[in-house]
Write a structure and sequence with these properties.
Elements: H1 9-34, H2 41-46, H3 52-58, H4 62-86, H5 91-108, H6 110-118, H7 120-125, H8 130-148, H9 157-176, H10 183-199
Helix pairs in contact: 1-4, 1-6, 4-5, 4-8, 5-9, 5-10, 8-9, 9-10
């Protein structure tokens, strides 16, 4: 009696993950070099060994792949920033080291650096993505926890989180306009701005 060889689900899943990773790598290169507006799906596919049809098995259009890149980057950044805030023993460390983690991450990766620099307007327009929105929610939660612990002066955490994330992004864009980026200067400015606001309350 002959038995058929079963398809190995693990191999299929590994291929799917490799294809998706190849598309994301191609998209990173294209968006950093050409910018979102000039980039096409064809440009992205050319950076891979995949057929154009394979792209559409993973993403419906270039906006979807751009959002996926932002989500990936935002998740990495949020983890670093949250760890820095949670390790803080003072208000100064809470604010300063959170910004340092954020700006250092952006400045340390040339591709992320280039994507941020070339696509600031598009990223602003996509601030409603769940991954970016989660940054507001996590900072608001950390501010509330800091208030309860007596580390952060009482204030409206919702407004403060919005201000810190929004201003932090705009300062990051200005920082990335200079090569090499001035991480220390950006951290000092953002920290003094919000430490002043928090301690004045």
């Amino acid at each position: 009696m002959q038995t058929s060889t079963p398809t190995i689900p693990g191999r299929r899943e590994a291929t799917k993950q490799a294809n998706r990773a190849a598309i994301l790598d191609g998209a990173r290169a294209v968006f950093s070099e050409l910018g979102y507006g000039a980039a096409t799906v064809r440009d992205i596919v050319r950076r891979t060994d995949l057929a154009t049809g394979t792209f559409y098995n993973y993403f419906p259009d270039k906006e979807a792949v751009f959002r996926a890149l932002l989500d990936e980057s935002a998740a990495q950044t949020r983890a670093l920033v949250r760890e820095a805030r949670r390790n803080a023993g003072t208000l100064d460390e809470f604010v300063r080291e959170g910004y340092r983690a954020y700006y250092s991450f952006l400045a340390s990766d040339p591709t992320t650096f280039a994507i941020m620099r070339r696509n600031a307007g598009t990223i602003r327009a996509l601030f409603d993505t769940p991954a970016l929105g989660a940054g507001f929610e996590e900072l608001e939660a950390d501010l509330r926890a800091g208030i309860e612990a007596g580390l952060v002066p009482p204030h409206d955490a919702r407004y403060m989180a919005a201000a810190m994330v929004g201003a932090g992004f705009e300062i990051a864009i200005r920082m990335l306009e200079v090569d090499p980026p001035d991480v220390d200067g950006a951290v000092a400015f953002a920290a003094s701005l919000f430490l002043g606001g928090l301690t004045a309350r």
